[in-house]
Amino acid sequence: MTLRATILGVVLLVVGVAWVRYAALITFGANIDNSVPAGPALLALLVLIALDRVLAWLARRRILQSREIAVAYIIALVGIPLSSLGIVRPMLPSLTALRYFADPSNNFADLAELVPAWLAPAQEQAITDYFEAAATERVPWELWVTPLSAWMLFLGAFLAVLVALAVLLRRPWTENDRLSYPVATFAIELVGREGAISPLPLMRNPLMWIGFGLAAIYDGMNVAEAMNPGLPALGLSYPLGSLFTERPWSALRTVIFYHRPEFIGFGWLVPVEILGTTWAFYLLTALMSVGGMAAGYEPPGFPFVARQSAGAYLAMALILLWSARHALRQSLRLRRSAWVALGAGLLVMLAWAAAAGMEPLLAALFFVAMLLIAITFARIRAETGVPTNWAFPFGEAKKLILEATGTAVWSRAGMQSLTIMSMMNFLARGYFPSLMAFSIESLELGERMQARRREVIGALAIAFIVGLPLAWAMHLQAFYQYGANVLEGGTISGGYRTALAKQEFDLLSGMVENPGIPQRVATGFMTGGAGIVILLSVLRHHFLRLPIHPLGYALATSYGYLLWAPFFTVWVIKSIVVKIGGARAYRRLTPLFLGIAFGHLFVAGLLWGAFGALLPGELYRRLHIDIG
To answer: Which residue among 9, 51, 169, 542 is least crowded, i.e. fewest CB within 10 A of its CB?
Structure first.
């Protein structure tokens, strides 16, 4: 790790976080922090590419080494999402909502007293100023420094565990399973250096620019319509469910055809069987709702798609660990430092949770569920390159435990254990599983751009050590200046992340008077999801050409409502192209689809995220583009 690479990465990280603060938090016109890669991280890569070209032209030789570009990019790639709507933004309301929203109608005040003083600030005025803005606009750091330091320790241990798992699993996934890591490949092809595999650099390929132009036209028409509603545009989605108004077909009212160029572009790299399985299983689960309504079977939550997803992810992770068992056994000798980091990180997490007042068994179950979900999600990104941070069972790590066991068993000695679990549940509601995906993609990118593994891990550490405090500072300064109630699209009671935190504590408050019993139906559907994944895995092991893939079922039940339409589109096109032109035609058209993804990320993410924010607020919010 050279000094200039580190400085470049940190500078790009700081600039990216400042941009996220303005575009995604203050003006709330484009979630530039939500895409994969995040908009500012993509800009950082483009800046590094341009700087490399300029220096090479001036000096008549390469100044920046490939591994320096990789290190600087990884710092921005991993550090910027820490400031996003999926990491710090769901965390801070979890530390403050209990005291702010306490009133006689709930048990929030009593539950807040169960939270240790080192875990969250307790001073009433500081909490009020957080949500409603401080008169002096000053952040009371003296009240925040202890809780944030404690969370820095926990989250550092969590990240160490995720990076250790990435180190241990990358080798069998790369060497044995021959995964392609499309997100890392996309960055390498843009750089066009030693790690690239295309004979013609992506930035010089005419097909890439055709795809870029198609995405630019699509986004440009949407922007024009936002400026002048009388102009025609394709829009961001089409509500197919509006066509079904009579029972039982009205159960399809939530089916929406989303136009997502980034999913179409990267979807080209997804295996055909995963594409087909994803859209088919999503529509199948939608038809289950129709069948249930027709039969008069309509329990709340049916057909429990999220529970099916949780079971699928847990089972898939266990299958992946079992498949890699020989490589993991060998790594006990070759990757001792990774095993030490894994063990030490888990011990710190468990000790931290126990010190906070959470029962060790409950903490262990919660953390294991989170890590298994992270493993499956990392595999999905490594194998398919789906450019999203959200394709996992959202918030299910806690639910699957409490529904299987009931809440009464954990509240016999008081509510402290469940209170700490609810406070920590932002881990399951944010895209923390994506940190493992970023880690394993960074390791692959580093190796293909000639960076040593320890250099990549060093870049990940710098991204965390610099990025997390920077994310806290950025958010707290904004909240104490403007008030968290009115930021991120909020009006008088906070944005979506605050609403989720309050909803979490409302459920906790209800448990005080009505402890829950095991939910056998929901748990049964979770078990059914696990069974389907196991069955599909066994069938694919015995029938190699089986066109149904367990990862497709996992995607359909976790993020299928957004993925099914673009995946169906790509599945049709790709099936025809491969059938007529074979693998050669598929490879030749790959730059076209990467151009579609790149064009959308550039126009909707970078240009609209930068210049759109300069427009009047109401006009900017008229077209809120949520990429990823």
So the answer is: 542
| Structure confidence at residue 494 (pLDDT) | 73
Distance, CA of 250 to CA of 262 (rounded, Å): 30
Can you give the pLDDT at residue 252?
A: 87
Q: What pLDDT score was predicted for residue 253?
A: 87
What distance in Å separates the CA atoms of residue 498 and residue 504, rounded to the nearest whole number?
10
Which of 625, 539, 619 shows the shortest CA–CA distance to 228? 619
Can you read off the two tokens belonging to residue 626?
């949520």
> Is 114:416 a contact under the CB 8 Å cutoff?
yes
Full DSSP string of 201-234: -GGG-HHHHHHHHHHHHHHHHHHHHHH-TTS---
Q: What is the helix, strand, coil percentage profile of the chain, to 5?
A: 75, 0, 25
Whether the Cβ atoms of residue 222 and residue 233 lie closer than 8 Å to each other: yes
Q: What is the pLDDT of residue 444?
A: 93
pLDDT of residue 232: 81
Q: Per residue, what are the HEC states of 287-320?
A: HHHHHHHHHCCCCCCCCCHHHHHHHHHHHHHHHH
Relative to beta strand 237-238, strand 257-258 is antiparallel
Residues 6+ apart with CB under 8 A from 397: 310, 366, 369, 370, 373, 425, 427, 428
Using CA atoms, how far apart are residues 406 and 435, in angstroms rounded to an integer? 30
Q: How far apart are CA 441 and CA 462, in angstroms?
A: 17
Rounded to two decimals, the pTM is 0.94
pLDDT for res 284 = 94
The pLDDT value recorded for residue 613 is 64
Number of H helices, E strands in the chain: 26, 2
Burial group, residue 92, by CB count within 10 angstroms (0-12, 13-18, 19+): buried
pLDDT for the residue numbered 620: 62
Q: In terms of C-beta density within 10 A (0-12 exposed, 13-18 middle, 19 or more buried), how is residue 287 classed?
A: middle
Q: Which parts of 60-107 fold into alpha helices (H)? A: 66-79, 88-100
Residues of the chain with pLDDT under 50: none
User: What is the distance between the alpha carbons of residues 556 and 550, in angstroms, rounded to a whole number?
Assistant: 10
Determine if the peptide bond prior to 232 is cis (ω within 30°): no
- What is the pLDDT, as a whole number, of residue 55? 87
Tokens read off for 300 = 């709340």
pLDDT at 85: 87
| Distance of alpha carbon 95 from alpha carbon 120, whole angstroms | 5
User: What are the structural domain ranges in the chain?
Assistant: 3-621
One DSSP character per residue, 42-72 reads: HHHHHHHHHHHHHHHHHHSS--S-HHHHHHH
Encoded tokens for 419? 């209170």
From residue 374, give the alpha-carbon distance in Å to each of 68, 313, 380, 393.
28, 9, 10, 10
Q: What pLDDT shows up at residue 60?
A: 80
The whole-angstrom separation of Cα 254 and Cα 359 is 39
- Give CA–CA dist 249/251, Å, rounded: 5
Evaluate the CA torsion angle 137, 142, 146, 147 in order and state its sign: negative
Cα–Cα distance, 338 to 71 (Å, whole number): 20
**CA-CA-CA-CA torsion sign (446, 447, 449, 454):** positive
